[in-house]
Design a protein that fits this description.
alpha+beta, 3-stranded antiparallel sheet, HSP20-like_chaperone, 2 domains, protein-folding chaperone binding, Hsp90 protein binding, p23-like, CS_dom, Immunoglobulin-like, 3 helices
């Protein structure tokens, strides 16, 4: 059934009537929906940024629209009722530094869509966003986090463990050689006191 236009209101009608009268442009128009801004976690290593968008189980089954720009990433999820361009979820992040859009991707994770962003220059970022103010929706994904100081500490700890392991191995080897060494000392001492040549010893 076709929608009919509202009846015309005379121009001489009172202002209160004119203000409340419907217009043809508003007939059948869907109400505008403000997209919900979801929570998200971020992490980084030297070459990449990782952003996990927190979605409900129902929302994870819908296909998101993701746009990667050099200094920005846009994430949106269409409304579940087929509202067309009206977004149910929207996330707009202005990045601190540049990324390579051609090296970015969006995949699935157990907590929601995982955005993988390739840094233009490999370096540690002091923060994710350009703005200095706190983002109440932002959290840190410690399971994917890699900090230079932490990486250096891990390497130092690994070197200490390796040094300790090698020291223990050398100690066991020296301990195994001590009885033979003590025997040699005894033979040399007896030969010196008896003023005789040291007898040959087997290997």
């Amino acid at each position: 059934q076709l929608a009919t236009a509202p009846p015309a209101v005379p121009a001489s009608a009172p202002a209160s009537v004119l203000a409340s009268a419907p217009t043809s442009a508003s007939v059948g128009a869907p109400a505008f929906r403000v997209p919900r801004r979801p929570s998200y976690l971020w992490a980084q290593n030297r070459s990449h940024l990782f952003i996990t968008v927190a979605l409900s189980l129902t929302e994870r089954h819908r296909s998101p629209i993701v746009t990667f720009e050099p200094m920005r990433v846009l994430f949106s999820l269409p409304a579940a009722d087929g509202g067309g361009a009206y977004e149910a979820v929207g996330l707009d992040l202005e990045l601190l530094r540049r990324v390579m859009p051609e090296g970015c991707s969006c995949g699935a994770s157990s907590r929601g869509p995982l955005l993988r962003l390739r840094k233009q220059r490999e370096a540690h970022w002091p923060r994710l966003l350009r703005g200095l103010g706190p983002d109440t929706k932002q959290g840190v994904d410690w399971s994917r986090w890699s900090h230079p100081a932490a990486s250096q500490a891990d390497r130092s700890e690994a070197l200490r463990e390796e040094f300790g392991r090698l020291t223990e191995v050398r100690s066991r080897e020296i301990g195994a050689m001590l009885p033979r060494f003590e025997k040699l000392i005894k033979v040399f001492d007896e030969a010196w006191q008896g003023e005789r040549a040291v007898p040959p010893m087997g290997q």
